[in-house]
Design goal:
This protein is of the alpha/beta class. It has 14 helices and 13 strands. The protein is globular.
């Protein structure tokens, strides 16, 4: 059998924080390939994660274009890709080619061209003669455009994952993401983390070759406490970056409606405005009866799992306006914690009224508060039923062993 090389394109992993969920997948990929080369679109850092012996990581550091940027942009204006994408804006997506959208398109096309050149250089350093090669882009972004353009040069097949920010037009400032059709046509498969994402892509881009679109959810390890007789507390937890899509101010408004209860909210995750948000939280909750908060900032994944396992949380909450299929919810259910979450993206594929509560896509603070109170006030015997159902949801549908095992089997079929 020929030696097999997997080339995995990431944004930050394993050089910076972020993309922690990639770490869950690496052991399965490394066990299935003779060598794994991770090419990260990051710079200026050393490897921050422990990797298997047959996994190598390199950084694809694109240098700033400086004054040459506009020359590159001008070159792109005369490309076939630019013209085709303009036609799609006008006649398929029915959106105006505004300055913002055209600028984003030019940026995509220029970066795709530069990534192609950088990837060719890195791949040629590591690929052996007669070695089977598979290109795997973890995101459907500019780097995936570079990956599909490298495909013929390295005689390889390409698979691309699609999540949330790289999928939904409606949740982008420009209401547009460039080059979807070009990436789709040149890739061998687009792999979605939720069935809802696949349906969205088919409808948005009028896809007829549906066999190229597959669904393979992510997965996590079990996280049940060793002593299953956990001490429950009137505590709730959320886990996300602090950004507008996560709607944490809305959650804060809901907490103020619980002021007659003794409740502690723990939020795991940071962001560019963490300190400002922390001040706002403590200011708003200062006169809010028994409601208190603990904001941890960013934590390593093992610390997040330990906190979920040891803190006696009665409910996990997510009020995002947009999601793919959140790994944070998988982690909560792998710990046996019921979940309250908005019905957005693929959330309804994991949360239901047997393992938690589904909120409307745009809930009021009162709706959120009522769902949280349902679990915070729940007797332990009833809570254990929801906890069991949450854990069974993880075990049957979101186990890393099950999902990544199926995914690597799929990768094997691609190479046959």
């Amino acid at each position: 059998m020929k030696k097999r090389l997997l080339i995995l394109f990431t944004n930050r992993f394993p050089f910076h924080q972020g993309e922690e969920f990639v770490e869950n997948e690496i052991p399965y990929l490394s066990a299935n390939f003779h060598q794994v080369l991770i090419i990260s679109n990051s710079s200026g850092a050393t490897v921050q994660k422990t990797l298997p012996d047959n996994v190598i990581a390199e950084q694809c550091d694109l240098q700033p274009l400086g004054r040459m940027k506009y020359l590159h942009y001008l070159f792109m204006v005369f490309s076939v890709s630019f013209f085709r994408e303009l036609m799609r804006m006008l006649f398929q997506y029915k959106i105006a080619p505004t300055r913002q959208r055209v600028g984003l398109l030019m940026e995509y096309l220029v970066d795709g061209r530069r990534y192609k050149k950088a990837y060719m250089h890195l791949i040629s350093r590591y690929r052996e003669r007669d070695q089977q090669c598979l290109l795997y882009s973890y995101w459907m972004n500019q780097s995936s455009l570079g990956a599909v353009r490298v495909k013929k040069k390295v005689n390889s097949k390409v698979i691309i994952r699609a999540h949330r920010y790289d999928l939904y037009f409606e949740h982008q400032p420009a209401n547009y993401i460039p080059c979807r059709k070009e990436i789709f046509k040149k890739a061998d498969y687009i792999c979605f983390i939720a069935e809802e994402g696949r349906r969205y892509f088919i409808n948005k881009h009028d896809i007829r070759e549906k066999e190229k679109l597959v669904v393979y959810p992510l997965g996590v390890q079990t996280n049940l406490p060793v002593d299953k007789r956990r001490v429950l507390k009137a505590n709730m937890v959320s886990c996300s970056y602090i950004n507008p899509a996560k709607r944490l101010p809305l959650l804060l408004d809901a907490l103020q409606e619980l002021k007659k209860k003794e409740v502690t909210w723990t939020h795991i995750g940071g962001g560019d405005h963490f300190d400002r948000f922390k001040e706002e939280v403590f200011h708003q909750l200062s006169g809010c009866g028994g409601v208190s908060a603990s904001l941890t900032g960013n934590l390593p994944n093992q610390d997040v799992r330990r906190l979920l396992r040891e803190s006696g949380f009665k409910v996990f909450v997510n009020v995002s306006s947009s999601e793919g299929l959140p790994v944070s919810i998988m982690e909560a259910m792998a710990t046996g914690i019921p979940v309250v979450a908005t019905r957005v993206g693929g959330v309804s594929e994991i949360v239901n009224n047997n393992n938690g509560r589904l909120l409307s896509p745009d809930p009021s603070p009162g709706e959120i508060a009522d769902a949280l109170a349902f679990f915070l006030d729940m007797k332990e015997e009833m809570w254990e039923k929801f906890s069991f159902n949450a854990y069974e949801t993880w075990r049957n549908h979101f186990s890393d062993e099950k999902n990544y095992g199926a995914f690597v089997t799929f990768l094997n079929t691609i190479l046959q």
